[in-house]
Write a structure and sequence with these properties.
Layout: E1 13-17, H1 22-33, E2 37-42, E3 54-57, H2 63-77, E4 82-85, H3 102-130, E5 133-138, H4 152-172, E6 177-184, H5 190-203, H6 207-217, H7 229-239, E7 251-254
Parallel strand pairs: 1-2, 1-4, 2-3, 4-5, 5-6, 6-7
Helix pairs in contact: 1-7, 2-3, 3-4, 5-6
Length: about 260
């Protein structure tokens, strides 16, 4: 089977949540390059708008936010072929279980687990009716490697997302919809760069020393650096393409070797 990589997603309509920065933006750009019509959603307008990418402002941590996105896409485009649930966030304080409130747990679960569940529920009926579609859940290696000091709710939510993704695949793959999970390790986004600057400023060390301290906290990254957003995006671009037509129900870890177990 021959594929035109530059145009392999022609006539496909794709949504990337959290698609205005970091890995989400890289994924949106990669799908656009492959010929897809790309929609992104986030709470705020992108800092550098791209008139080739459709933007919907929505807070997906709220049911009304996900409903808005589903309704607008159905109204404007009529269907969705590719859903990349990339949105993820952890804003809870450090200090372990004792400092976390119910509200912080709830907010983290809404953003990282229930938002994808609601979007899947909104778009799956159309995909099933058409007999085709691809859903990608962007999880995290913290589902297997939780950092309880600072991201306990986030790790729990992502572990739930991985389990849910597998269960959903078992249900809808026979109906023509592929469901896959991508679990990145540390990605060098703008937010990561700002974090390194804060660590460097507070410790009085260099950026390189700050980067090493983060890798040490993860137990080391054998590859020696964080992933680049484009590297994650390239793999997602492959997974949603016809070249990956037999892949479903699987979790793929992109972490430079961070997780030490199979």
């Amino acid at each position: 089977m021959d594929f035109n990589f530059e145009n392999e997603l022609k006539d496909k309509i794709a949504l990337v949540t959290g698609g205005t920065k970091g890995a989400g933006k890289a994924i949106a750009d990669r799908l656009l390059k492959a010929g897809a019509t790309v929609i992104v959603t986030a709470r705020n307008q992108p800092e550098e708008p791209d008139d080739k990418i459709h933007f919907i402002a929505a807070d997906l941590s709220k049911p009304e936010g996900t409903q808005k996105v589903v309704e607008e896409i159905h109204k404007q485009f009529g269907r969705l072929d590719i859903l990349v649930n990339n949105l993820g966030a952890s804003e809870t304080p450090g200090g372990g279980f004792a400092v976390l409130t119910d509200e912080q747990w709830e907010e983290t679960l809404q953003t990282n687990l229930l938002a994808p569940v609601r979007l899947d529920r909104g778009f799956l009926p159309g995909m099933i009716e058409n007999g085709k579609g691809v859903i990608i859940h962007i999880a995290s290696i913290q589902a297997k490697l939780p950092l309880y000091e600072s991201t306990l709710p986030y790790a729990a939510a992502k572990a739930g997302l991985v389990n849910y993704s597998k269960s959903l695949s078992n249900e809808v793959t026979p109906k023509g919809v592929r469901v896959l999970t991508v679990s990145p390790g540390w990605i060098m986004t703008t937010s990561s760069e700002r974090m390194l600057e804060r660590i460097s400023a507070s410790s009085g060390g260099t950026i390189e020393e700050a980067e090493k301290s983060v890798m040490d906290a993860l137990g080391g990254i054998p590859f020696g650096r964080a992933a680049r957003p484009e590297e994650v995006a390239e793999f997602v671009g492959f997974l949603v393409s016809p070249r990956a037509a037999y892949l479903t129900g699987t979790e793929y870890i992109i972490d430079g070797g961070t997780v030490r177990t199979i």
